[in-house]
Amino acid sequence: xxxxxxxxxxxxxxxxxxxxxxxxxxxxxxxxxxxxxxxxxxxxxxxxxxxxxxxxxxxxxxxxxxxxxxxxxxxxxxxxxxxxxxxxxxxxxxxxxxxxxxxxxxxxxxxxxxxxxxxxxxxxxxxxxxxxxxxxxxxxxxxxxxxxxxxx
Amino acid sequence: xxxxxxxxxxxxxxxxxxxxxxxxxxxxxxxxxxxxxxxxxxxxxxxxxxxxxxxxxxxxxxxxxxxxxxxxxxxxxxxxxxxxxxxxxxxxxxxxxxxxxxxxxxxxxxxxxxxxxxxxxxxxxxxxxxxxxxxxxxxxxxxxxxxxxxxx
Amino acid sequence: xxxxxxxxxxxxxxxxxxxxxxxxxxxxxxxxxxxxxxxxxxxxxxxxxxxxxxxxxxxxxxxxxxxxxxxxxxxxxxxxxxxxxxxxxxxxxxxxxxxxxxxxxxxxxxxxxxxxxxxxxxxxxxxxxxxxxxxxxxxxxxxxxxxxxxxx
Lengths: 152, 152, 152
Known about the structure:
The structure is a homotrimer. Chain A is an alpha+beta fold. Chain A has one domain: CATH 3.30.1330.40. Helix content of chain A is 30%, strand content 28%. Chain A contains three helices and seven strands. Chain B binds chain C through residues 21-28, 30-31, 33, 35-38, 94, 96, 98, 134-140, 144, 146, and chain C through 31-33, 89, 91-92, 94, 99-108, 110-111, 114-115, 118, 126-135, 148, 150.
């Protein structure tokens, strides 16, 4: 099944690329590696479900936020490569989870992103990653995800 | 205009490379990617304006700290490549901002670095990036920036 | 001296690869770069010496934790490349140190990893790096290390 069909089946609409919050680019290519800037769980220019894991944001909301941040990475990717066929591999994601000090399930939160990538792309979506907790993120977002992809 | 002229015009002196705080290298090349170790806003071996955004460090000081950390990345880059002409592209920066939990303007702080890079290098200075907040950095620095550059 | 001999001399046993905590891969290769997922100081599926630098975890314990996280990165590397001879260079590590807000010796903690890599691999083990503090890590681990290596 094509990526477009899988996206449709999963009910995922790839949005417009979020406007960078500052003087930088959504993505820069070097060789066949595409470095995608850190994306927040924003929809229509608004952060969805702001706050901290372990406080205002529960696990389900956190996983949904990680999904949305990953989808925003894919929006940047798609805008850059044009056709999904030009994606060779999701290489690596780093997921920063905004959380209370006593929260230690960052890996579970980031699964929201990891599982989605595998559902959409299959083997091409399986990636290396790091999941870390931080005390604070831009716009009080619950998570931020950056991505490295290999592209044609 | 050459990079040297722009640096002069901007009043920026590229310093000596700061001594690594530990057993590692300032930069390692792999193919045409140069991975530059995380740099602090240090000048003459002293951290400038230590402390947290949202507490002792205000926005203007934070942006200046981000500028200085970026300049220290450039010091490593220049020492490695020798001539500015060997720089092909600033690919990516990651900016860790030491801040209070309720501070959410990390992107604005990191603009200090992003805007400077564009001023100095033009299109070659435009990069992908991630801006995250952290509770603590080495030597109580207000920020730390790591960089990936593409070089000849 | 071969890497295997040095490991033996240092009394280091490279463990089985820790089971990923989630839906991702221990490592993904792109060109000759191998991106290794963030590793915790786990032994036999248990986090060794959990807690924060500056509170429950002292400097010596923190450095040991960084060593162990680095060894777990090497476990992933070895499982991927098969023979140590296929390692060309440890390119970069990022060390996230779980710590109190007033702790500022992240660089010293990460030296546990950096010095070990140099002892094992000599010049091939000398790397770029970033050391940052964070308020929280998966499973309450004292540190997490991710690695980029250049391989044949």
